[in-house]
Amino acid sequence: MSWNNQGSGGGGPWGGGPKGQWPPSSGGGGGSATPPNIEEILRRSQDKLKRFLPGGFGSGRSIALLIVGLVALWLMSGLYRVQPDEQGVELLFGKWDGVITESGLHWRWPAPIGEVQTPKVTVINRVNIGFQDSSDLGGRVSGSRDVPRESLMLTGDQNIADVDFTVQWRIINAGNYLFNIRDPEATVKLVAESVMREVVGQTKLDDLITTAREQVQGQARVLLQQVLDGYGAGIGIERIQLQLTSPPPPVIDAFNDVQRARQDKERLQNEAEAYQNRIVPTARGEAASVIEEATAYKERVTKEAEGEGARFKEIYQSYLIAPDITRRRLYIETLRDVLKEANKVIIDEGAEGGQGVVPYLPLNEINRNRNTDSGGQ
Questions:
Q1: pLDDT per residue over 234-282, tens digit each?
Q2: Is residue 162 pLDDT above 50, yes or no?
Q3: pTM score > 0.70 for this model?
Q4: In sequence order, what are the beta bridge partners of 169?
Q5: Which residue, 208, 121, 228, is CA-closest to 167?
Q6: How would you classify the pairing of strands 145-146 and 125-129?
Q7: 340 CB contacts (<8 Å, ≥6 apart)?
Q8: 223: which residues sit within 8 A by CB, 6+ positions away?
């Protein structure tokens, strides 16, 4: 198509003047600037395009250049960026070939041949089991609501426990996370509930409530991670936190009574052990003292018996040598032993003018009484 700028006056599209120009200004001298000639601009643009494509739009070279340009633009559309908190998963014809790209600028086949998905891998996700809070309820209510069908579990000692806990997890392999499991959050929740029931089923209720909380959390986390790894879920368990471990509300009063009874039992047992620790050593000391006294008495009696036996043998030898003297000496010694402790009264039957009683000074009795008085004080 060619443009013709020649023509007679009045033939332009706006009339009155040369074709393709604005009417001249009615003012003299410094009138307003003449507006650009649109037909001239279009003509110049067409000439430049003809110089770039000598053969015109319909030539083979023009078509080839146009195709090359379109292909280059299509290939450039395959560039994509992965942020530091993401992993890139490249798809070829909708299939993941195992390639995961880290943060930075990458290229993959453009659509519709290729596709890329970039899920967040540093975000810590949270799943509540046994209860629902405001985040689970969409922020419609405040506080939390118990879910008995999830929280009631059977313990190792055949009791029922109300267990609420939270699972924190994140993506560690974006490809496995996207294509190996259909609903990751529901999978984590169901597997975590099953794992916790298994661990609680091996734990006593008292231990679960008091001393075994950390142990239960650790065992459940390890077992849950093993199950998810077996699924190839691409999920890493960061933490399992027990929120509530208690008996069910209908029996909690009875359970508290049992706990108080156990505390009373432990208190009484401790008091009994303290009494035992105080009494037993005393009894053992007294028993040892009695044993020592009996042993000493035994030794004394034995020695006295041996001495009496030896003395008897000596007397017997003396008796064999001098029977009369020995017999008289034994008689006198026996009277001495018998009469020394008795009160004595001497009577003289030949005394005249009296009753026959001989007065004397009882020095032995005085000395004995004095010794008795001093020993009693």
A1: 999 999 999 988 888 777 777 778 778 888 898 999 999 999 999 999 9
A2: yes
A3: no
A4: 125, 237
A5: 228
A6: unpaired
A7: 364
A8: 195, 198, 199
